[in-house]
Amino acid sequence: MHNLPIEPIRGTCMEMCPKSETILREKERLLHILEMVPGTQKCPVADKEKMVKSFSRSAAGKQILNPRDLRPPQVLLKTVNYLLDNILKNNKVPWHITYHFIMDRIRAIRQDLVIQSTSVTLTESICILQPIIRFYAYSAYRLCEEPISNFDPHINQTHLQECLKRLLCLYDEWDNISEFNGKNQNCISLRKVKKVRPMFEALYLILNLGSSTPLLRALNLSKNMRRGIIELAILVSLNYSKNNYVKVGRLIKKLPVLLQAVAMIHLPEVRRRALQTMSVAYNSKNSTFPLELLQKFLLYEDVECTNKDCIYYGVQCKEQNVVFIKSDFDCSKAVVQPTHLRFIDDGFKKRDLSDLILNG
Questions:
Q1: What one-character-per-residue DSSP string does 48-90 give?
Q2: Helix, strand, or coil here: 28?
Q3: Is the pLDDT of residue 252 over 60?
Q4: Do residues 308 and 317 make contact, with C-beta atoms less than 8 angstroms apart?
Q5: CA-closest candidate to residue 108, choices 51, 62, 54, 158
Q6: Angle formed by the axes of helices 212-219 and 190-207, to 10°?
Q7: For residue 243, how far is the Cα from the chain centroid?
């Protein structure tokens, strides 16, 4: 992202936003509505308690390494908590606007973290990255039905992958250290890191279904680690690779809700591949397959949604039954856009959203 200085640098800004930036953005009318004093939209006034440093690319002559403009890890963590608690649940603006505000401020947090990387401990980096990753994962589901003008899933996916891979590298580095000393325990206890790690190892698998690299990583984890949620994610990945889509659907419903949400992003591709495979395996004009059973296997919301996808891909449906004919399947059709699923929405309703994203 940037050329790091040779000497370790540690920020000294103890506010979520440097005072110089607050003054500049207020003067230039660059305040976000979520940072303004209520009722001052016509002549924006900064609410200093709500100001959060925005992301800015390095430019010629711009000093991005000034410690006074860099927030130390404890302030970065405080800012993450503010964004993913106070801002995440605000009802002042549509959620896609909330998302873009949080995403921009998270980029600034990551930028500060990278610049100070030589003076930040493993656990400080880990506890900052984990909730950020959960936010990206949740957003991929929450905004999956939005038009591209409101949400770009590719950009979100890129940020999610970058942060997740960085976190896994930190876990690997953590494994290579036999014992942490006191200064490595500033943010969270090692016990908590160990407790939540399986979720992120499983997330790497579910996020990259069909890829051998995450699967090999999971299989190389210790036997004690390779249990529970990771074992379940391994089974999802293996059955996806084997084209056993019925088993994939059953296993997805056993995952924690956040992993279900990430898996749902893959469902349109799973369904497309399943319909294409069945068009070959069940190729016959004289036999049919129950539409209701297909709905259950492929986790469709209802029979109507199942029928809609079949028609889209050229698969014939007659009297609540599917007629699979190899030549009918239209391979040129693009994969449909993901949609929300009731059982996942219900799962999220049972949890406090901020607690889920901040603490898992």
A1: TTT--PPP----TT-----GGGSPPHHHHHHHHHHIIIIITT-
A2: coil
A3: yes
A4: no
A5: 54
A6: 140
A7: 25
Q: Does the pLDDT of residue 279 top 60, yes or no?
A: yes
Instruction: Output the average pLDDT for the chain.
Output: 91
Contact 34, 50 (CB under 8 A): yes
Distance in angstroms (rounded) separating the CA atoms of residues 77 and 151:
26
Residue 183 has pLDDT above 50, yes or no: no
Percent with pLDDT over 70 in the chain: 92
Nearest to 185 by CA among 122, 276, 239, 275: 122
The pTM for the full model equals 0.92
Full strand arrangement of the beta sheet holding 321-323: 289-290, 321-323, 316-318
Q: Residue 319: which region, alpha, beta or left (left: phi > 0; alpha: psi -120 to 50)?
A: left
**Region label for 346, one of left (φ > 0), alpha (ψ between -120 and 50) or beta (otherwise):** alpha
Q: Which two tokens mark 289?
A: 């397959």
Split at pLDDT 50, 70, 90, the class of 186 is very low
Query: What pLDDT score does 189 carry?
Result: 55
Which residues, 6 or more positions from 37, have their beta carbon under 8 angstroms from its beta carbon? 45, 46, 47
Closest Cα to residue 136, out of 127, 144, 148, 124? 144
| d(C-alpha 49, C-alpha 52), whole Å | 9
Q: Whole-angstrom distance between the N-terminal and C-terminal Cα of the chain?
A: 28
Cβ-contact 118, 2 below 8 angstroms: no
Nearest CA to 358 out of 180, 179, 167, 196 is that of 196
* More confident: 56 or 154: 154
Q: What is the largest CA-CA distance in the chain?
A: 75
Torsion, CA 168, CA 171, CA 177, CA 183, rounded to 10: 120
Q: How far apart are CA 211 and CA 223, in angstroms?
A: 21
**Residue 56 vs residues 22, 69, 221: alpha-carbon distances, Å:** 14, 12, 38
Locus of tokens 């400080």: 124
Q: Among candidates 322, 339, 238, which has minimal Cα distance to 288?
A: 322
